């Protein structure tokens, strides 16, 4: 069964769309009907399917999660003990636990069966740039 590892470079917290790369891989597999699974090999970022038409959606999601899980330097997070990797690390793990590290998308007629405004995003939860590895598998 075909698979590929894709590395995405992030520049800090935010959403990074990579729908086109997944779609290109699915096309190269020559699978008319099946399932595409994407898995991120990290614990401080996540994957989401989200609207890709209005960039304000991504800004609002990033801001919502920042309010929901602030950095450990925020007094409300004083109960956390995992702090030696920086004030954004444990909150990144919490955000990843609240979202998902893998997604599955049906393949129909050789294409991802995404809705009109749906895109696949890596949701980076750390402040600094990272190279994130994703495994894409089609069956």
What's this, in brief?
This protein has three helices and eight strands. The chain is α+β, with helices and mostly antiparallel strands. It is elongated, with a radius of gyration of 16 Å.
Q: Give the amount of beta strand, in percent.
A: 35-45%
Poorly predicted parts: none
Q: Could you give the order of strands across the largest sheet?
A: 1-8-3-5-6
CATH superfamily: YjbQ-like
Tell me roughly what share of residues is in helical segments. 25-40%
Total tally of structural domains: 1
What series of H and E elements makes up the topology? EEHEEHHEEEE
Judging by the overall fold, what is the CATH architecture?
Answer: Sandwich
Distance between the termini: 6 Å
Dominant shape: elongated
CATH third-tier fold name: Jelly Rolls
Structure description:
- With 139 residues, this protein is an alpha+beta fold.
- It has one domain: Jelly Rolls.
- The chain has helices at residues 19-29, 55-68, 89-98; strands at residues 3-9, 14-17, 33-40, 45-51, 102-108, 111-112, 118-124, 131-138.
